[in-house]
Amino acid sequence: MYCFRTLDEPSGLTFTSTVRPGEVRVVTLVGDVDAATVGTLDEALATGERLVVDLTRVAFLSCAGVRSLLEANTRAALAVVVGGHAVTRSLEATGADLLLDIHPRVGAAIADLTPVPEPGREA
Fold first, then answer.
1. What is the pLDDT of residues 89-113, one digit of tens each?
2. Taking every annotated instance into account, which residue ranges of this chain make up the domain STAS (predicted)?
């Protein structure tokens, strides 16, 4: 007797992007980040001076994905939101967790990147 299992999950990587007050851009990724999909991650991180990268719906993060995050971190203020063990493990194994601003929730990451108006000035 043979047992077959099929997965009806979409393959690849997708993202959505929204701009929040303070010009903080939130990029939410869904899927796996690997050598085949890292171009989508690069596209998602291509613009913005303040970026929140929500990886809570990413099941796998390869070294190529870690490298993409580190490159984006050199040109923009970047906050990374992690939720899954696999993503956390990839960041820890590469040492990227020591270089990136890691948050447990999107709200905390947004607050961290939102500019605080100077006293006497409007936002």
1. 999 999 999 999 999 999 999 999 9
2. 24-113
Establish if 3 belongs to a structural domain: no
Tell me the pairing of strands 77-81 and 50-61: parallel
pTM of the model: 0.84
> pLDDT tens for residues 40-56?
999 999 999 999 999 99
CA distance 55 to 60: 9
Domain holding 73, by residue range, is: 13-113
Gap between the Cα atoms of 11 and 67, Å rounded? 21
Contact predicate 69/37, CB 8 Å: no
Domain tally, the chain: 1
